[in-house]
Every structure is written in structure tokens, then in C-alpha cells.
Design brief:
Structural class: alpha+beta
Number of strands: 5
Order of helices and strands: HHHHHHHHHEEEHEEH
Radius of gyration: 21 Å
Strand order of the largest sheet: 1-2-3-4-5
Shape: globular
Largest sheet: 5 strands, mixed
Strand content: 5-15%
Number of helices: 11
Distance between the termini: 60 Å
Length: 253
């Protein structure tokens, strides 16, 4: 049972968010007359073990929306997940948001009918980002980096688009620190550094910090490793990849 719950955590978070934010309008997008009928539908598809599990997921997101329900704060805080979903789909109306949930359900093998036939390319791109642990970890770091004592007064600069072996530069007084972010769904697991990241870690040594955001499924934890190229046991594994490029003929532009 636990394996199935872990496998479907992302889709259940989307469903809980949709129920808390849009209430009965969300279940109506699936052709369901009530939330209890919708919960049974989710169980029948194998996305949750029990109807109560669907209700609990809605309850965990309720405190973050003005929907008249209090939900519960005391366990499985999901504020970081709510904010991450907001960053991707917070401006969607109930129709387009339901379509996103249906896209996720279709990806795991259901023939559920989409709300609209046309899905914007940008929505598909955001949908892919939702499934990437690294993106969620980076988003959490951006919103919580000052909880790390070293960065409490730091100025963050996003360097992800540069592709130069680190994600962020943080100015701390007169010093600059480079931070590379890695994400883990659970509390344990291995991380991977690219050759570019490893080279940059060697070059900057103590001014290069690896930040692992673990336990993303529940309550994230930030772990910082200064000078990771020397502090971690990193085993090199060579992987060959091929990339095909397409060239035009010589034209006058």
C-alpha cells in the first residue's frame, strides 16, 4: 500500500489542491455530482487506497484557501507544495486546472477525457516541471534560503540559465558563495553532480556549497555541504549521450 501512495503523491497533491481551491466546481469538471462520488472515482482508478485518503489530502490544503473549511495544520504541512503548485498553475481557472490534473492521470494510463481538446504548449512545459524534483527543490530554496545561518543576510542571484555548474550566487557581506541545489522526495537517497558542477566545486572549494533539499514529500529539510568535491565520496560514472542537431542550407538572411 505504501508503495502505491508514494507513486501517486504528485497527482494526489494536485487533486487535494484542486478540491481545496475550487471545491465542487473542480469535481464537476470530472462529471461527478459530489466530492464523495469523486473520491470513489479516484479510488477506483487506483490513485488512492481509500475515500478517506482523498478527503485527507483536501484537508491538508484547506488551511491555505479561504473556502470556509479549517482543514488541519497539525501534520503533513503542505505549504511548500501549495506554493510550488501556485508558481506553476496559480493563475489557471477551474477548467484549465482540471485539464492539467487529467493530463497527469492520462500519463499513468487512464483514458480520461480532457476538459478541452487543445492544451497550450506552455502548460505542457509547466506540467513537466511539476514532475522534476530539482525544480521543486530549487523553488523551496529560493523561498527559504535565509533560514540557513550562512545566508541569513544574503542577496540571492539566480544563475540557472547560465548553465555554469551552479544554480545560485549568494552575496554574503563581501563574499560570494555558489550554491548548487539537489532534491530528494525522501529523507535518504543519493545525489548526482555533473562534470561541470564537480569542476566548479573544485575551482571554488569552500565558496561552493551543495544544498540538498530532502523529504520533499512531507516537511523539507535543507542540508548544506561546503566544499562537496572534497567532503563527499563521489564515484564517477561515465555515460555516453548522443545529440542530433539540424542545420539549414547556406541562405541569405
Amino acid at each position: 500500500m505504501q508503495l502505491m501512495e508514494n507513486k501517486n503523491t504528485e497527482i494526489m497533491n494536485l487533486i487535494g489542491y484542486g478540491l481545496a481551491k475550487f471545491d465542487n466546481a473542480f469535481v464537476a469538471e470530472f462529471g461527478m455530482p459530489s466530492k464523495s462520488a469523486f473520491a470513489r472515482f479516484i479510488v477506483e482508478m487506483g490513485l488512492a487506497n481509500t475515500v478517506k485518503a482523498v478527503s485527507n489530502r483536501m484537508d491538508s490544503f484547506d488551511p491555505y484557501f479561504d473556502n470556509g473549511r479549517r482543514g488541519w495544520f497539525q501534520r503533513n504541512q503542505r505549504e511548500h507544495i501549495k506554493l510550488f503548485i501556485d508558481s506553476l498553475f496559480g493563475n489557471e481557472d477551474v477548467h484549465s486546472y482540471a485539464n492539467i490534473v487529467k493530463m497527469y492521470i492520462r500519463e499513468i494510463g487512464s483514458n480520461i477525457v480532457l476538459t478541452t481538446a487543445q492544451v497550450p504548449p506552455t502548460t505542457k512545459t509547466k506540467f513537466k516541471q511539476l514532475q522534476e524534483t530539482g525544480k521543486e527543490a530549487e523553488f523551496y530554496f529560493i523561498n527559504n534560503f535565509r533560514s540557513i545561518p550562512l545566508f541569513v543576510d544574503g542577496i540571492l542571484e539566480d544563475a540557472r540559465l547560465w548553465g555554469d555548474g551552479y544554480d545560485f550566487q549568494i552575496q554574503c557581506s563581501d563574499n560570494y558563495v555558489l550554491a548548487e541545489i539537489k532534491g530528494l522526495r525522501e529523507t535518504t537517497g543519493s545525489i548526482r553532480m555533473t562534470q561541470n558542477e564537480y569542476n566548479k566545486a573544485l575551482e571554488y572549494s569552500k565558496d561552493y556549497i551543495l544544498v540538498v533539499v530532502s523529504n520533499l514529500r512531507n516537511t523539507p529539510k535543507l542540508t548544506c555541504i561546503e566544499n562537496p568535491a572534497n567532503k563527499l565520496v563521489l564515484t564517477p560514472r561515465e555515460q555516453q549521450s548522443r545529440q542530433t542537431n539540424y542545420y539549414s542550407e547556406n541562405l541569405s538572411w
